[in-house]
Amino acid sequence: MAEGLFIDIVNGKGRGVFTKKPIPADTVIEEAPVIVMSAKDRKILDQTLLHDYIFEWQPDGANMCCMALGWIPVYNHSYTSNCEYFMNYEDKTMCIKTVRDIAAGEELSINYNGDWDNTKPVWFSTSP
Questions:
Q1: What angle do CA 70, 12, 97 make, to 5 degrees?
Q2: Residue 116 included in any domain
Q3: How many separate domains does the chain show?
Q4: Is the Cα torsion angle 61, 63, 69, 74 positive or negative in sign?
Q5: What is the residue-wise DSSP string for 7-64?
C-alpha cells in the first residue's frame, strides 16, 4: 500500500480512497490478494450487497468472480478514472496503478468496467 492513502466519506458514494501526498503516473499504489469464487458462488453473491464489491475473474473465459482484499473494493468508479486495476490470475492478486499524476487530497478512482477510460454504462446510476 502506498504511503499517504486514507479512506474518507464521499457525498453520495459512501467511502472512497484518497491520498495525502502527490503520486506520480504509473505508480502501483496497492497490491492485494483475492478470494476467487466459482460461477455458482457468483450467482449467489449477485443477489446480495456484496455484488457491488466483487470483480469479474475470468481466466480462460471462466465466469468466476473474486473478492479483493485490502482497500481495492473501496475505490469508487469513474468513467475518467485516475487509476486502473490489473489482475494476476497466477498469483491470485489484484493491483491498482495510477494512469496520471495524482494531486495531494485527490480521490483515487477506478473504472469498474476494467479499462480506465471505458464508457460502457455500469449497473448503477452515476448521476449525482
A1: 35
A2: no
A3: 1
A4: positive
A5: EEEETTTEEEEEESS-B-TT-EEEEEEEEEE-HHHHHHHTTSGGGGG-EEE-GGG--E
Which residue in the block uniquely carries the three cell numbers 490470475?
Answer: 89
Residue numbers of the domain that contains 71: 5-110
Query: Exposed, middle or buried by CB within 10 Å (0-12, 13-18, 19+), for 45?
Result: middle
- Name the pLDDT band for 27 (thresholds 50, 70, 90): very high
Intra-chain end-to-end CA distance of the chain, in Å: 30
Question: In this structure, is residue 115 part of a structural domain?
Answer: no
84 is written with which cell numbers?
486502473
- Rounded distance between C-alpha atoms, residue 81 and residue 76, angstroms: 9
Please report whether residue 44 resides in a domain.
yes
Tens-digit pLDDT profile for residues 71-123 = 999 999 888 899 999 999 999 999 999 999 999 999 999 987 666 665 666 55
CA separation for the pair 36, 108 (Å, rounded): 24
Q: Domain containing 17 — which CATH number? A: 2.170.270.10
